[in-house]
């Protein structure tokens, strides 16, 4: 039985009957743009602000706790640590949810500018252009025998007749 990582970030005032101002009223409030006046903060508005910020904090912290590999998500003021944990969780989520590509499966693919026999690398536009140019140069008239004055003598010299 494994222990769940600790998540100190909890959503505030989230019940159906929470003491908060409606979303419409909140969006119309002057406090939304200007902040609270020094001596007049309504409980409903304050609860709404706390609910919105704490809910998103809780969601992000739950994501970190779930996808970071078991790290606790602590309310210790360490922004750098939380940032590192979030980055780690995002990387782990991406690498576990998006597979490497193959001939039969969509996924992450690595690009290459070199020819080879890999089934997992994808050709870049530059390499495709280089391959095309190379093929076109092979068919140039000055390299395909059209410039040979005595073709019969040439074929004879190659030992083909």
Topology:
Layout (H helix, E strand, L loop, with lengths): L22 H6 L1 H5 L8 H25 L11 H19 L12 E3 L8 E3 L1 H14 L12 H7 L4
Parallel strand pairs: 1-2
Description:
The chain is mainly alpha-helical. It has 2 domains: 23-97, no CATH class; 110-157. The protein has helices at 23-28, 30-34, 43-67, 79-97, 125-138, 151-157, and strands spanning 110-112, 121-123. It has a two-stranded parallel ribbon with strand order 1-2. α3 crosses α4. The radius of gyration is 33 Å and the shape is elongated. The N and C termini lie far apart (82 Å). The mean pLDDT is 87. It comes from Photorhabdus namnaonensis. One of its GO terms (biological process) is symbiont entry into host cell.
Average of pLDDT: 87
Order of helices and strands: HHHHEEHH
The order of strands across the largest sheet is 1-2
What form results from the Cα inertia axes? Answer: elongated
**Range of helix content:** 40-55%
Number of helices: 6
**C-alpha termini separation:** 82 Å
Instruction: Work out the count of structural domains.
Output: 2
What is the percentage of strand-forming residues?
A: under 5%
Structural class: mainly alpha
Low-pLDDT runs of 5+ residues are none
Biggest pleated-sheet summary: 2 strands, parallel
Cα Rg: 33 Å
GO biological process, one term: virion attachment to host cell
InterPro entries: Phage_lambda_Stf-r2 (IPR005068)
Protein name: Phage tail fiber repeat protein
Organism: Photorhabdus namnaonensis
Which terms would index this structure?
2 domains, 2 strands, mainly alpha, single chain, 161 residues, 47% helix, Phage_lambda_Stf-r2, two-stranded parallel ribbon
């Amino acid at each position: 039985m494994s222990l769940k990582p600790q998540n100190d970030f909890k959503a505030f005032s989230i019940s159906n009957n929470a003491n908060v101002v409606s979303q419409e009223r909140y969006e119309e409030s002057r406090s939304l743009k200007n902040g609270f006046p020094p001596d007049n903060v309504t409980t409903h508005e304050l609860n709404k602000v706390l609910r919105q910020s704490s809910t998103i904090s809780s969601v992000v912290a739950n994501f970190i706790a779930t996808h970071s590999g078991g790290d606790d998500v602590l309310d210790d003021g360490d922004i750098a640590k939380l940032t590192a944990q979030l980055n780690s969780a995002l990387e782990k989520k991406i690498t576990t949810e998006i597979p490497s590509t193959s001939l039969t499966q969509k996924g992450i693919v690595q690009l290459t500018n070199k020819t080879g026999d890999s089934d997992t690398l994808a050709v870049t536009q530059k390499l495709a252009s280089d391959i095309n140019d190379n093929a076109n140069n092979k068919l140039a008239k000055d390299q395909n025998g059209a410039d040979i004055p005595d073709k019969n003598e040439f074929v004879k010299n190659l030992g083909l007749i």
